[in-house]
């Protein structure tokens, strides 16, 4: 059995890294997955990398770590995560007969944040990853993404409207992975379904939001609020 602790949208709140470390030890966590947005300082390369280094260094002491970068993280963060061997963006993660795929950043936003991708790029990369997972004869599929899929509870804005990725939604409609776990839209913490796919926006960690995923013949999830 694999027990995975997931959280997202740190935005410089390093105390929550320490909370995650304690929680991982208490819960017997094997792997920690962070879904992106390390720092509160958008566009500040040093601050972004420093916050990423703190998370990777602290949590690497208690579990295997895999990270996405968020749309607010500079491209240099991706390079840092790759160098540290913890990058999940455009990567596959074998969990027995379950395979997880990862995609960081976001679809285009009105704010022109540092790590945004066109819907065409997102769809093409996800198609490739799903195809690779199929080659691994995956019986179950998890998608870890920073951005949520379009037109779900996970991407709903407080004033109305949706700000998720239409490409990610298309991939979910087409392939029906077991689970998609995301963040990005802070106010859209939720659980939803697209067909047979469970969609979970974990919610920002600054509010004490964590998710535990257990992979053991089947996939189960449990929210933790601290």
Kindly describe this structure.
This protein has 226 residues and is of the alpha/beta class. It has one domain (2-225): Metallo-dependent phosphatases (Purple Acid Phosphatase, chain A, domain 2, 4-Layer Sandwich), CATH 3.60.21. It contains 5 helices and 11 strands, in the order E-H-E-H-E-H-E-E-H-E-H-E-E-E-E-E. The strands form 2 sheets. The chain has a 6-stranded mixed β-sheet with strand order 4-5-6-7-9-8, with helices on one face. It has a 5-stranded mixed β-sheet with strand order 3-2-1-10-11, covered by helices on one side. Strand 10 (209-215) and strand 11 form a beta hairpin. Helix 1 runs parallel beside helix 2, helix 2 runs parallel beside helix 3 (75-84) and helix 4 (119-135) runs parallel beside helix 5 (166-175). The longest helix has 17 residues, at 119-135. The radius of gyration is 16 Å and the shape is globular. The model has no long low-confidence stretch (mean pLDDT 97).
Helical residue percent band: 25-40%
Q: Which structural class is indicated by helix and strand composition?
A: alpha/beta
- Which CATH class? Alpha Beta
Low-confidence stretches: none
Amino-to-carboxy terminus distance: 24 Å
Instruction: Tell me, rounded to a whole number, the average pLDDT.
Output: 97
CATH superfamily: Metallo-dependent phosphatases
- The best one-word shape is globular
Sheet of most strands? 6 strands, mixed
Count of discrete domains? 1
């Amino acid at each position: 059995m694999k027990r995975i602790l997931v959280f997202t949208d740190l935005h410089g709140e390093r105390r929550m890294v320490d909370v995650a470390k304690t929680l991982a030890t208490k819960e017997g966590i094997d792997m920690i997955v962070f879904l992106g947005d390390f720092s509160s300082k958008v566009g500040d390369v040093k601050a972004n990398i420093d916050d990423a280094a703190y998370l990777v260094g602290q949590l690497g002491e208690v579990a295997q770590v895999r990270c996405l970068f968020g749309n607010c993280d500079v491209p240099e963060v991706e390079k840092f995560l790759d160098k540290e061997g913890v990058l999940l963006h455009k990567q596959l993660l074998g969990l027995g007969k379950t395979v997880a795929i990862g995609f960081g950043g976001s679809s285009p936003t009105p704010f022109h944040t540092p790590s945004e991708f066109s819907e065409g790029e997102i769809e093409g990369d996800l198609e490739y990853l799903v195809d690779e997972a199929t080659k691994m004869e995956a019986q179950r599929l998890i998608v870890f993404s920073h951005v949520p899929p379009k037109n779900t509870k996970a991407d709903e804005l407080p004033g109305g409207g949706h700000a998720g990725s239409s490409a990610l939604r298309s991939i979910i409609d087409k392939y029906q992975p077991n689970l998609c776990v995301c963040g990005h839209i802070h106010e859209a913490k939720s659980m939803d379904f697209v067909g047979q796919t469970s969609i979970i926006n974990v919610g920002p960690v600054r509010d004490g939001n964590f998710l535990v995923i257990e992979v053991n013949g089947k996939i189960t999830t449990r929210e933790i609020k601290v």
